[in-house]
Amino acid sequence: MTRPAPQDVRTVACVGAGVIGGGWVAHFLARGYAVRAWDPAPDAEARLRRLVDAAWPALEQLGLAPGASPARLTVTGTLEKAVSEAQFVQESAPEKLELKRELLAKLDAATPAGIVIASSTSGYPMTDMQTEAVTPGRLIVGHPFNPPYLIPLVEVVGGERTDASAVEWASRFYELAGKSVITMEREVPGFIANRLQEALWREALHMVANGEATVREIDRSITEGPGLRWAFMGPMLTFALAGGEGGMAHMLDHFGPSLKSPWTRLEAPELDGALYDAVVAGCADASDGRTIADLVAERDQGVIDVLRATGRLPGTGAR
Question: Where does NAD(+) bind (predicted)?
Answer without folding.
Answer: 16-21
